């Protein structure tokens, strides 16, 4: 069964905006068709700035720095995405209120929306004074979950554009974006792509990022059942925290993974716990792993290169063992037809090979560039939402740091 049979066909150009964590991302997608049958999309503009290096000295994401950086980067990224899509229309600069606001929204209302984004307001004003409305039908923006100080600039930017251009705004749950990212084909610019043919419902989604570890049963688009989640640290967070103890740079997942590959297949010197692996439910716990890794590292000071690699391998295997075991059990128990893996940790190559080898049903991973946070997945989810329930406004959107699917 494929989902969304009630969705009507449409052609839409969507602007996607994502600022839930430390990536600022803006994209333009052209979408057409019915999700169930003939859906296809083309990425015509895609601009992303990762703040990871700026947060690295803090060993994690520093919310107020993220907020400031989002404010600084949104307009330049918008200009880049519109330019790539060939829909940036410069007009002769003029003084006073922006030209495009001709359909009745008082400029003061738009200013009020950006009141708390003091660095964004002058940039938006200048952009709107010097550019005509581009050929965009709808805007999709992440409203949560994420860091609220980071979410707000994206939301308020989207509201200002929506008011000024007089087009609808669709609020998107970031986790729905991660689900959608694994279902669609490619991430290449200007290439027509579609839904993967292996995608069938019900599907089991394993969502693993720096802030989340969840198993969701996908019964339909917009119809999710949370089967389990982490009770403490997220899988990505466990990677990042143990990486920090090993003096590896942030974000640590990829660093642990590289180090682990040096020790794979060699004699094992260490063992770390598999938290809640046999708990019988679908919840996770990774804080015990972090504590055990810290003790192990303290016991073996000074760490030899061999020992560091072995601890990294055991960390990766511990996290992946638990994720794979619970995902496969949930798949079987709920008769899922495929497994979807989403979130930053979906980029982990050891997780990818273990799940693919051990699963009896197809396992779908996001295309490169769609695992970590991006605007394409938000625009795609926006299209499915907008074609299912035609958007009515969206100006009441508020940031929801703990939003659930
Ligand atoms: O989804 P994401 O980009 O941001 C949110 O947390 O929403 O995920 C980032 C997380 C970080 O914890 C990072 O260490 C982890 O994904 N990550 C990885 C890998 N690449 C990114 N973890 C393990 N292996 C990787 N290759
Ligand atoms: Zn994410």
Describe this structure in words.
With 405 residues, this protein is of the alpha/beta class. It folds into 2 domains: 200 residues, 2-Layer Sandwich (Nucleotidyltransferase, domain 5); 163 residues, ATPase, nucleotide binding domain (Nucleotidyltransferase, domain 5), CATH 3.30.420.40. It contains 12 helices and 10 strands. A 5-stranded mixed β-sheet has the order 3-2-1-4-5, sandwiched between helices. A hairpin with a 4-residue loop joins strand 6 and strand 7. The chain is globular, with a radius of gyration of 22 Å. It starts with 10 loop residues before the first strand and ends in a 17-residue tail after the last helix. The N terminus is likely disordered. The structure holds 5'-O-[(R)-(carboxyoxy)(hydroxy)phosphoryl]adenosine and zinc ion. The site of zinc ion has 5 residues, from helix 6.
